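hey so i finally got around to running both of the ones u sent me last week. sorry it took forever, my laptop kept dying halfway thru and i had to restart like 3 times lol. anyway pasting them below in the order u listed, first the sequence line then the structure token line for each. didnt double check formatting much so if smth looks off just lmk and ill redo it

first one:
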Amino acid sequence: MRSEVVTKKIRIAAWAMLIAQAGIILTGGIVRLTGSGLGCSDWPKCTPDSLVATSEMGIHGAIEFGNRLLAVALAILGVCIALMLWKGRKQRPDLFWLNIGLLAIVPVQAVVGGITVWTKLNPWVVAGHFLPSAVAVGVAAYFVRRTHDTGVRLDAKAPTPLPTLGWIILGLTAIIVVFGVLTTGAGPHSGSTISTRNNLDNIWITRLHAAPVWLLVVTTVSALVIARKKAQTAMVAPLTVLLVVEIAQAIIGYVQYFLGVPELLVALHMVGLSAAIAASVAVLDSAYPRSTDVHTDRSVSVVS
């Protein structure tokens, strides 16, 4: 499947996958922020007696069941994309298997989500439920980028030290995500009035969460300056986007902390998190350019 066969429908579907993966993070956050984590008291059924939420369960049941339905929609979307890519899977195995990987995350998320319900939203299990979603956003962002080239990596890459800085940026983003999850587990929004917290010191874990953020900002600014100096236009755009997202996230993070983590700002912070993950992946990927020439021979260098 060369670039011209990666149709507009496939590209739209790839974007839909990225948006849906980010949506899962947001709706999961809404479940927690509204205290709806146990809106469905059981899993895989919503209750022992009902597969779906009922009117008697109120708004909390509707919110939690809606989050579960989005996971089903993700699975359906993944299957549809797999069918769209099936004919060209030998020519573009990278696209096919990236989508299969995203599809495989769905049942993992479902099972871990069920365990969170069974454990009454244990914060450590909730953390384990979130992290695969963060990974899925990154993979989906990479998948989107792959639909805009032939999948053939060029021999040339961005000049030193840009590729290394790209890896550092992605690594710092991962660290920030982990500390962010731990900070959430120590905070007030547990998802239910009966749920416990992780007993980490809220002030210190928040500081540990903030420290790599500033390292990330410094690294991003450094990479952007170098990319401009070395005329690496392919990296300038994703680095600029990432820097804007980082600044916005830092502002939201500090404001929400000093205002007592109001629900709306927390939700915005989660949207920004998905944007930061996607932008970090784009930065690293842009350091390793791929051909957009549909006549490039895939046997020369193939990204799998």
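and the second one:
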Amino acid sequence: MPIQNPHQLNLPPSLRGDGLVLPYETHTPTIGEEVYLAANSVVIGRIQLGDHASVWFGAVLRGDIAPIEVGEGSNIQDNAVLHVGDDDPCIVGRNVVVGHLAMLHGCKIEDDCTIGMSAVILNKALIGKGSLVGAGALVTQGTIVPPYSLVLGSPAKVVRELTEQERKGAAVFAPKYVGVARNYREQSIE
């Protein structure tokens, strides 16, 4: 099957960029309103991207053997990888920041979380609402993180609950990326 790009799939004009949007078997990605796919991002198969989500340069979302969902306003930053296990979808909630080079594999990230750069989160792990997983953390298979936790280390451990100030500080990044993605779309930066 030849490689297809968004222009060949007749995606809405609000979607700009040259990100590859590829079907897998009978599944084609579902893309919400005002989504930004950067030039060399790749979105394959059973993918659902919520409104105002963004997938940045070099990121790969491969929904081949199970689905991937990315919630409204969430961003998957440069060179991040989202993949799945046989019975383990990858679910990213609303307003989630997935940092550069992060790897999410068959896990669930609840709303309003921040996943630090180069963090790895493995199958069946659950990151509770509003949590912050630090850069370089390794969240092992099946780990359950309570809401509003600070998670650090390799293997990762819950260090403490986030303070109110830390929660407010982290809450600015997802909306900021919605604005940056809007600028890229408007300027047709591909």
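quick thing i noticed on the 2nd:
Residues 20-184 form a domain with the UDP N-Acetylglucosamine Acyltransferase; domain 1 fold (CATH 2.160.10.10).
anyway thats it, ttyl
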